[in-house]
């Protein structure tokens, strides 16, 4: 009976109810679009970090992550290779030689991070081969792949020669000439300026490593298994190796996730408070217009708790109905945007600094859906408390003034 009565009461003044209902709908649509866009941008940044270099898990010799010196290479690489090949959770893994060096052209020079890879493995392992804007991916010894920003700085073009200078395993200064066969462009400007690629064999010869490597990078079939798989690897390999997940390798990822959580709670709070004052306003006006009604109901013996529940139900109905309509309109906007993406090319330079592409695809998560379903009804419930208390303070004798 209370629910039926509450439904009739909110439509007594249709214009006023529709105004508040519209504010709830607009709030839900705004929250859905902003939240899904933020999640999509965050997911894209994390995926780019993983798919362009970091991978899910990396294995190094102890201390390598703090100082990528060539002396900290993995000596017993065959043991690691054997252990990794026994796990069915691993989708693919790659052996790499990584260290610092200097690249020189006829016009300039720059400090770089040299990455020696097995081209046939790394081509399927990262997105670098799919991000080439000029030339092709490395396929044989003597070839080098560089980022677009680095190519612009050094004024290097396809077919040009570049000289790599490094300090080898014995501390000797070694240089070698490579031919530029490809130029790539990743979503991160900073990445393009630093990372260059040569074959694993070239890197081993350049640093005088023999057959040793610096790193094993691993991609799992399921990213959510990284922590448990790390523990398994730690037991299998022992303490002489450092095994790091992508969260530990790229602290920027964790920072961005924390920033998203803080930002989105603040955004929900701002929208929620704005809607809350609207609901409080409409419920107070409704109570002042119904003083006579409440007085009569109390005189007839209706308990205060029932009147309070009636006010709460009216407020909840507005919040719930607005949420459902808002979700309907939000989905109508979200579905096409999740397929085509939102082109933020105007901010491409800023997005590149964060490692995100210029086209952002909104992503709706169960967490976001849960928040959207319960935020506005909860806000409406909170907003109904003060008007509900006001209704409890009314006395039947006061209703005589309004008859």
Layout: helices, strands, pairs:
Elements: H1 2-10, H2 14-54, E1 57-61, H3 77-84, E2 90-104, E3 109-117, H4 119-125, E4 132-135, E5 143-147, H5 148-154, E6 161-167, E7 173-184, H6 189-194, E8 195-199, H7 200-206, E9 215-220, H8 226-237, E10 241-245, H9 246-249, H10 251-289, H11 291-299, H12 304-340, E11 342-343, H13 348-353, E12 359-360, H14 366-392
Parallel strand pairs: 3-8, 5-7
Antiparallel strand pairs: 1-9, 1-10, 2-3, 2-6, 2-9, 4-7, 6-7, 11-12
Helix pairs in contact: 1-12, 2-10, 2-12, 2-14, 10-14, 12-14
What does this structure look like?
- By secondary structure, this protein is α+β, with helices and mostly antiparallel strands.
- It folds into 2 domains: 2-49 and 253-402, no CATH class; 63-238, no CATH class.
- The chain has helices at residues 2-10, 14-54, 77-84, 119-125, 148-154, 189-194, 200-206, 226-237, 246-249, 251-289, 291-299, 304-340, 348-353, 366-392, and strands at residues 57-61, 90-104, 109-117, 132-135, 143-147, 161-167, 173-184, 195-199, 215-220, 241-245, 342-343, 359-360.
- Strands 1, 2, 3, 4, 5, 6, 7, 8, 9 and 10 form a 10-stranded mixed beta sheet that branches. The protein has a two-stranded antiparallel ribbon with strand order 11-12.
- Strand 6 and strand 7 (173-184) form a beta hairpin.
- Helix 1 packs across helix 12 (304-340) and helix 2 (14-54) runs antiparallel to helix 10 (251-289).
- The longest helix is centred in the N-terminal third of the chain and has 41 residues, at 14-54.
- It is elongated and about 100 Å long.
- The two termini are 26 Å apart.
- The mean pLDDT is 85.
């Amino acid at each position: 009976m209370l629910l039926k009565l509450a439904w009739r009461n909110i439509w007594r003044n249709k214009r006023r109810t529709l105004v508040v209902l519209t504010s709830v709908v607009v709030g839900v649509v705004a929250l859905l679009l902003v939240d899904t866009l933020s999640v999509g941008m965050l997911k894209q940044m994390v995926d780019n970090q993983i798919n362009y270099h970091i991978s899910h898990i990396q294995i190094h010799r102890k201390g390598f992550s703090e100082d990528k010196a060539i002396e900290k290479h993995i000596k017993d690489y065959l043991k690691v290779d054997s252990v990794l090949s026994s796990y069915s959770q691993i989708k693919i893994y790659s052996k790499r030689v990584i260290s610092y060096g200097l690249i020189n052209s006829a016009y300039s020079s720059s400090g770089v991070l040299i990455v020696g890879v097995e081209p046939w493995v790394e081509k399927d392992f990262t997105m670098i081969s799919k991000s080439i804007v000029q030339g092709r991916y490395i396929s044989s010894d003597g070839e080098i792949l560089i980022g677009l920003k680095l190519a612009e700085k050094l004024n290097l073009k396809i077919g040009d020669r570049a000289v790599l200078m490094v300090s080898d395993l014995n501390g000797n200064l070694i240089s070698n000439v490579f031919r530029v066969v490809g130029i790539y462009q990743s979503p991160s400007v900073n990445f393009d300026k630093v990372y260059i690629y040569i074959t694993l064999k070239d890197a081993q010869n350049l640093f005088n490593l023999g057959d040793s490597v610096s790193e094993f990078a691993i991609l799992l079939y399921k990213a959510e298994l990284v922590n448990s798989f790390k523990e398994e690897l730690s037991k299998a390999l022992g303490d002489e190796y450092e095994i790091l997940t992508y969260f530990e390798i790229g602290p920027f990822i964790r920072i961005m996730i924390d920033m998203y959580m803080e930002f989105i709670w603040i955004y929900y709070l701002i929208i929620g408070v704005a809607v809350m004052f609207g609901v409080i306003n409409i419920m107070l006006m409704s109570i002042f217009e119904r003083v006579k009604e409440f007085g009569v109901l109390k005189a007839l013996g209706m308990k205060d708790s029932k009147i309070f529940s009636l006010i709460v139900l009216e407020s909840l109905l507005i919040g719930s109905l607005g949420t459902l309509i808002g979700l309907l309109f939000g989905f109508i906007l979200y579905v096409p945007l999740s397929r085509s993406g939102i082109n933020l090319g105007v901010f491409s330079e800023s997005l590149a600094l964060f490692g995100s592409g210029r086209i952002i695809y909104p992503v709706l998560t169960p967490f976001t859906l849960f928040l959207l379903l319960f935020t506005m009804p909860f806000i409406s419930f909170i907003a109904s408390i003060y008007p509900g208390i006001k209704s409890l303070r009314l006395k039947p004798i006061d209703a005589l003034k309004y008859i």
